[in-house]
Design goal:
Layout lengths: L1 H42 L12 E4 L2 E4 L16 H93 L5 H92 L3 H12 L22 E9 L7 E8 L4 E5 L9 E4 L3 E6 L1 H4 L4 E7 L6 E7 L3 H12 L6 H6 L40 H10 L4
Antiparallel strand pairs: 1-2, 3-4, 3-9, 4-5, 5-6, 7-8, 8-9
Length: 473
Amino acid sequence: MAKLSFDAICQYSEDSIRQCRELAHYFKRRCQHELEFYKTATKNAPVASGSKGKGTVSGSLGTTPLQPANVAEHDSPTQGTSLWSFVDTMCSQYTKTAQLHRVWAIHLATTVLEPLQTDIRGFEVALKAHVERGAGYTKSLQDVYTSLKRAKAVYDGCQSAVIEAGSALQKARQNPNVREKDLEKISQKAVALQEKSQMAADALQVCQDICNVAQEDYYNSLMPSLIEEMRQKEEDRCYAIKRFLTLYNDLEKQFADARMTLHEMSGDQIQQIDIEEDLDVLRKETIAVVHEDRAQDAVSVASLLNPLKSGRMLVKSGEVLASWKNRYFCFMHMERRLYIFDGEDALCPRDVISITNASIHALHPSYFGKPHAFQIIYDSPDKSTRHVANLAAESATETDCWMEHLRKYTYCCATCAASFGYRQETQFNSHLVAGESGFRPVRSFQLMIGEIKDLPTFNVAGLRNRLATSPST
């Protein structure tokens, strides 16, 4: 059983070391792949528009222009825009990613691969020593068995000779023709053989005792101790491999965290891309925009005298992609225009909303997740499309004030104006005569409510009375 156990643990240790060599080979190939990626990525890295060789992305797919090569850096119309600045940053981050692969490969080689290869050599030397010790113990026991076998053969030969001598002596005594002298010789020979047999028996007993001691030592001391050493060595090897795998996993995590940091930086920069700002640069510096009123480009905050209402609000164009911007607003009721500026000292408006044909709607806080919001739906300058501007004031009072001032000059018909207590016959809203606005009067409608959030409780009976006494629309 001890021999089988020794053979089993030797086979297990050999297979374990083979697995260690395969693991080291995997780490080595991983380092090579990462370095190959670094070399290929560095060779084919995209070139940002702000670097040498500006304007191209070189790679296996050829050369793709980012911008015309003959455009000087200061003449580039897209320079400084958030969108194309991010593209330059993305190109530089590609090189940083390649550097990460190289650094990771170096760390893997120095902290995992090389120490593992050193330990594997130690594992192989230790296993060889254990196998040689086990073979030595086994050979010593086999030598004892051989000595015992030889002593047993000698003893058996002596016993056979004693039996033959005894038989010959008995026959000689029974034969009357045998002389006394010959009988004496036969008797002496039988006695000598018996003495020799006794000596062989004593030698056999000594060999048997030696064999018993050797077996006891081999099976109960030498081999169990050797097997325990090999088991302990295998345990140490397993913990060493676990430690290397932990180091490898930590390196992988650091590598993934570094790459994730680059991705998060890219994600944050993508979120900071402001298409409106970029297009505003296009509008201001590149394209001469033909507006409904070309003189408005020369309008500054200081040139707007006695606005009916002014102040800062948040504005969001559209409902999905646009972000909220803090702007300064001036409502010129005589012109029925809402001017939007970057700030109180702006020299020209960012946008102008004509409320000649527009509608104002309050927005529930759940719509954008922002309180005190309302919406303006207005015509484009050529009246071909409708635009939406979502605004949010600092407080409910400010929102009510803005909506009240705007609604005085923006109702689509006299009935709607009258429902809010405003007269149609004024110099500012004479355009509200029914039929001029192009809106079709709505006498009734059906509203299907799918979900209501944070709706305050109210008196149903009071609401019915209010609806019954309100003007018919």
